């Protein structure tokens, strides 16, 4: 069974990115995977802000990342990059926390002008952290996110297709270390 950990890096309470993470978690569970979901906004702010390396709450999330064959990292674009709380979280991880893992970035943004933030902001840090393979990822324009009658979010067909491809790519992953 493939183990997948999702990290959602929006600080916002009403976060579209967090909702996408929730939806992806459900889809991965339906596919029979073992899934952990980390909403960084729910971790103790003090521990993140003061880089508390011995934080118990954060240690649990590190274990989930260690167990994972693949990690999906979700963030809104903030100031042309990913969010500060996601960086604070990544900073507390061991240096090579992504060693041998497949990493899939999923980014939401307000303007397509920042599409390349996946390439220049996220991918280099995944590479530094030892990622074996970094998938192309998906950039989702916030205004294209819609809801169905049950309140579940959905996207334009091309984005739905990209997400399906990403889920397929990580579905048969096994840790390569
Ligand atoms: C502080 C802040 C900075 C932002 N900076 C950018 C930006 O530089 N580029 C961009 O495309 N969108 C930017 N946005 C828009 C968000 O990326 C976008 O609305 C995203 O979908 C919000 O995700 P969330 O609901 O999960 O927080 C910014 C939003 C906020 C609140």
From TrEMBL:
Pfam families: FMN_red. Keywords: Flavoprotein, FMN, Oxidoreductase. One of its GO terms (biological process) is alkanesulfonate catabolic process. Residues 3-143 form the NADPH-dependent FMN reductase-like domain. The keyword Flavoprotein applies. InterPro entries: Flavoprotein-like_sf, FMN_Rdtase-like_dom, NAD(P)H-dep_FMN_reductase, NADPH-dep_FMN_reduc_SsuE. PANTHER family: FMN REDUCTASE (NADPH). This is FMN reductase.
């Amino acid at each position: 069974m493939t183990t997948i950990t999702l990290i959602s890096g929006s600080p916002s309470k009403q976060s579209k990115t967090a909702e996408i993470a929730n939806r992806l978690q459900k889809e991965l569970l339906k596919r029979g995977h073992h899934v952990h979901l980390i909403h960084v906004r729910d971790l103790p702010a003090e521990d993140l802000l003061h880089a508390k390396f011995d934080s118990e709450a954060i240690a649990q999330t590190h274990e989930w990342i260690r167990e994972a064959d693949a990690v999906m990292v979700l963030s809104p674009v903030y100031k042309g990059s990913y969010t500060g709380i996601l960086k604070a979280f990544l900073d507390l991880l061991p240096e090579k926390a992504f060693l041998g893992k497949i990493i899939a970035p999923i980014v939401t943004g307000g303007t397509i002008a920042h599409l390349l933030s996946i390439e220049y902001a996220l991918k280099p840090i995944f590479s530094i952290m030892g990622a074996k393979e970094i998938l192309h990822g998906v950039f989702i324009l916030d205004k294209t996110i819609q809801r169905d009658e049950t309140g579940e979010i959905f996207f334009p067909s091309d984005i739905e297709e990209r997400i399906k491809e990403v889920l397929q790519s990580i579905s048969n992953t096994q840790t390569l270390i």
